[in-house]
Every structure is written in C-alpha cells, then in structure tokens.
Amino acid sequence: MSAALWDAQRDLYSDMLVGNARLATLKGSKRSQTGELLAALFKYNDISIEDGYIEADKDRDGRVSEVDLVSFCRDVHLECTDDDVRAFCRSLDPEALGFIEPRAWSNALQAFDHRGERILASRGYTPDSSGQAGKA
C-alpha cells in the first residue's frame, strides 16, 4: 500500500476511533483489546492480516518488533496505551525473541477478527457486499 493511501486510510480510521464516540468497554485483557482494535483497523481498511504485518513493520526489516508495533499504533491513533501494545507483543513473543513471528501474528489476529467486526458494527460500520467496511 502506498504511503499516501495508507495516510488516507489511517485518517479515516482515526476519525472513526478518536471522534466523540468512545469504544465500548470490552471484557478481557488490554492485550486482547489491542488485538481487537488491530483486527478492526485492518478490516475497516480492507487490509489482509499478512499485509497488516508488513505495514506494522516500521523499520522494514521483515519482522514486527515491540518498537515497530508501538510506533504503528501511535501512527494510526489506536485507542490503546503503549503498555497495552507491549503486553500484546509479549503475549505473541513467548520465547522473547524480540519480535512477533508472522505465524503468531496471523493466528492471533484471525482469532480477534470477529471481535474487530463487532467493534466496527458498534460504530455503525458494516461490510458492504464486497466485504469492505462502510458506514451503515
């Protein structure tokens, strides 16, 4: 995805999450909330989980580190703290390798995908016939 397109998509998502409507309280840990928000971000912007991994790799070294993901989440104004993102990273890096492996990323975000849909639906965004999220 080009930088300009990503900026436009980020701005759309930022407007959706940072506007007057606040995210409903979700049950579960802060790290699961981070996963849910990432899943919603990717679904809203019609970005595959694999492409989301590439986008989150801020330093373009082929791996998503804690620093990468914290920076990415700040850039897209995800409603979670840096500590929430760090906890999410640690949960996906149990061997403390210093990065999230693509398979762990994919498995986690697939598990959060339906919750991401609920977040979007709670904000009035539903998938259209093509699967792209749009305002209902």
Provide a brief overview of the structure.
This protein has 136 residues and is mainly α.
Spans where pLDDT lies below 50 across 5 or more residues? 12-28
Strand % is under 5%
- What string gives the helices and strands in order? HHHHHHEE
Count of β-strands: 2
Mean pLDDT: 77
Structural class: mainly alpha
Question: What is the gyration radius calculated from CA atoms?
Answer: 14 Å
The largest β sheet comes out as: 2 strands, antiparallel
Can you walk through the features of this model?
Helix content is 60%, strand content 4%. It has 136 residues and is mostly helical. It has a two-stranded antiparallel sheet. Helix 2 packs across helix 5, helix 2 crosses helix 6 (102-122) and helix 4 (66-75) crosses helix 5. Mean pLDDT is 77; it is low at 12-28.
